[in-house]
Design a protein that fits this description.
Elements lengths: L7 E10 L8 E18 L7 E5 L13 H15 L8 E8 L10 H16 L6 H16 L7 H6 L2 E6 L4 E5 L5 E7 L5 H6 L7 H20 L2 H7 L6 H4 L6 H10 L4 E4 L6 E5 L2 H18 L3 E7 L6 E3 L1
Parallel strand pairs: 3-4
Antiparallel strand pairs: 1-2, 1-11, 2-4, 2-5, 5-6, 7-9, 7-10, 8-9
Helix pairs in contact: 1-2, 1-3, 2-3, 6-7, 9-10
The structure holds L-homoserine (HSE).
Length: 321
Amino acid sequence: MVPVNQWIKIKAPATVANMVCGFDILGFAVNNPYDEMEMRFVQRAAGQASITIINIDDYNLPTDPEKNVAGAALLAMIEEYTANSIIDFSTIGFEVKINKLIKPGSGVGSSAASSAGAVVGANYLLGNPFSKDDLVRFAMNGEKVASGVKHADNIAPCIHGGVTLVRSIFPLEVIALPSPTLFVTIVHPQIEVRTADARSILKQNVQLKDAIKQWGNIAGLVAGLMKGDYDLIGRSLEDVIIEPVRSILIPGFDDLKKACKAVGALGGGISGSGPSIFFLSKEKETALAVEQEMKKLYEGLGLAHHTYVTNINQKGVEIEA
Ligand code: HSE
């Protein structure tokens, strides 16, 4: 266990959920952007809050632990730990400093980074009593605060690193998938799409013919990742269920998709619930050409935007003690 008052530093990566066809089940972590956090144990008097959140960015996110995604994830962890532990959480608490470099509402797992970073950090302070799957379970409480629903397609890759498949949430089963070298280009048009809103517009029923296409693509994508078959990955990056509904929220989406494919991207689509859009490429040069297409399109539309050219992060949340 780390002594009281000793700060640790945490780096929590952004994540791309859904991976186009795998709504709520597939996702991967990227090396850039990432959130920076610091955490420590503090002594506290009886009656004082067990979790203190200190925002060191300008987003004014709630600091009440029950309304803050990191706080909600930590409360779930403390509850489970208290049931059978030697630490008395009535005299000890967590202090968490959060510097969000991943803009909230951008669609690249900003809330997941805070929740996952907090529970990985707390686990380290406690001497690592919990498994990665336990940590994913706790962190999903943060996603519930953010979007109203527990989903793990950002949390799982944020904690595990790499590409992950969430085969089941209740009970939780996360499968880490291998992947060949892939370059990731992301554009974040500066509009906000709330995950709760992007979920509320989805149709509740799916036609069998669409479901057949979709599960073919999911299986094809998983097989492509495991075999390192770039063409199969590219062909499988197709979403006939969610994207047709959500893409109307993102200006320029269809034109951008055509332009990025034309310069050689394997494929891509909406990152999480948007508005960010991502494309995967086999070569760095292609990823940079994709970035140019993104800039050209959004400059043309007069819409402020931010781009990243990065790759898949294999480590997940990292601790610097
Ligand atoms: N799978 C979730 C969604 C990710 O698309 O709503 C949200 O970040």
